[in-house]
Structures are given as structure tokens and as C-alpha cells.
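Supplementary Methods. Inverse-folding protocol.

Structures were first reduced to a C-alpha cell string of length 226. This string, shown here, constituted the complete conditioning input.
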């Protein structure tokens, strides 16, 4: 029974969340906005209104590949959102601008996340190798090292949650205050942003579940040694 629950947690839930995001995004990709601006135009308007003239808005390939690169100060939008004039396109574009506003304001969780990037990258790259070797050799010490490395990657994902939710909150507020959407369009934009946020929640839950599984494995290994 425990294995079935674990399988549902790490496989089924993320899949359902991805389906929900895809369906929600596709639905509101067909719904236009009162402003008629494209995602790129909306992003540029908000950036300029906040004095962020040095931040570029670029088109990138891929589906929902939108992101903000703080190193090059670039808002990168997938083709559908760069050119699209829908609720979905504007919501996603302005969400990425929300990260620029966080950086401008010195938003603490964003600074912490940036500082954790090198550690999280190392942790995600070596954790499973250390864990696998620890399990094969029945070495609790190697397993513990792998768990510590994984914990760094999980911490990064946990810190990502407030960063993403805050960016969405900023996006919704600025879209209304700047006239990109009307009050009666707010609910639709919120659904798009919430659907995207759920993917981060699902990924974090899965990562924590994986970490706890290996912690229990380590505890069992220690008990066998005693």
C-alpha cells in the first residue's frame, strides 16, 4: 500500500498538474484581452514604467519556455507568448517581468535563491550518484552524503515557491493597475498564473517525498548496523 501511495505522489500528481496547466493555458490562449497588446508589448510597457529600460524582451523557441535571466537581464518569451495577445500570453509575460521587479526591489527570497544556484546544481548532479553507491555498498556514510546533497537541491525548490507566487501576485496587480486587463479579466489571468504555480508546488512535494524516502532508508541502514 505504501508503494502505491508513493507512486501516486511522485508520478500521478505531477502528471495531473501538467495536464491541468496545459488545458488552462490552451483555453486562455484563445481568449483576447481588452488592451490588445502582445506579451512582448505588455512586458516592455511594464519594464519601461518601472525604469527598467536595460532589460531586454527576447523571443525563444519552445513551448512555455518563458523565463527571466538575471545574468543578462533578459525576459525571454516563447513564440506563442511573445506574439500572442491573449490572457494567457500577457499573464505569462508579465509574470516573468515580476521577477525583474523582485530583483529591482531586492526581494529577499529571490536573492537567497540566486545564492543557492551553485549549491543546488552540484547537489542535483551528485546526489543520486552518492545515494546509488551508498546503497550498493551498504555504506550509510555515502548515503548520508547523498542525502545532504539532495537536501540542498530540495531547499532550492522550497525557496522557489515564494519567489514564483510573489512574481504572480506582482503580475496580477500590475496588469490591472496599468490597464493591461480589466477587472472582469482578472479571474481568467489568475487561473493561468495559479495553474503555472501548481507545477512548482507539485515538483517541490515530489522532491521532499524523495528526500524523506532516502532519509528513512538511511535510518534503516543505521539500525541494521547497530
Amino acid at each position: 500500500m505504501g508503494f502505491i501511495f508513493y507512486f501516486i505522489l511522485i508520478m500521478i500528481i505531477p502528471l495531473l498538474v501538467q495536464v491541468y496547466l496545459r488545458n488552462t493555458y490552451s483555453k486562455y490562449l484563445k481568449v483576447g484581452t481588452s488592451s490588445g497588446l502582445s506579451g512582448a508589448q505588455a512586458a516592455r510597457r511594464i519594464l519601461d514604467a518601472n525604469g527598467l529600460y536595460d532589460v531586454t524582451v527576447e523571443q525563444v523557441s519552445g513551448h512555455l519556455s518563458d523565463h527571466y535571466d538575471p545574468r543578462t537581464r533578459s525576459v525571454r518569451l516563447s513564440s506563442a507568448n511573445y506574439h500572442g495577445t491573449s490572457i494567457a500570453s500577457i499573464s505569462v509575460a508579465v509574470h516573468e517581468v515580476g521577477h525583474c521587479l523582485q530583483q529591482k526591489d531586492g526581494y529577499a527570497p529571490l536573492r537567497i535563491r540566486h545564492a543557492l544556484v551553485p549549491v543546488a546544481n552540484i547537489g542535483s548532479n551528485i546526489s543520486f550518484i552518492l545515494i546509488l553507491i551508498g546503497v550498493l555498498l551498504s555504506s550509510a556514510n555515502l548515503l548520508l552524503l547523498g542525502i545532504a546533497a539532495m537536501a540542498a537541491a530540495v531547499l532550492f525548490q522550497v525557496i522557489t515557491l515564494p519567489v514564483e507566487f510573489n512574481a504572480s501576485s506582482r503580475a496580477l496587480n500590475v496588469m490591472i493597475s496599468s490597464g493591461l486587463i480589466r477587472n472582469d479579466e482578472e479571474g481568467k489571468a489568475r487561473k493561468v498564473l495559479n495553474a503555472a504555480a501548481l507545477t512548482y508546488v507539485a515538483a517541490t512535494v515530489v522532491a521532499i517525498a524523495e528526500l524523506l524516502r532516502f532519509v528513512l532508508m538511511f535510518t534503516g541502514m543505521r539500525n541494521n548496523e547497530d
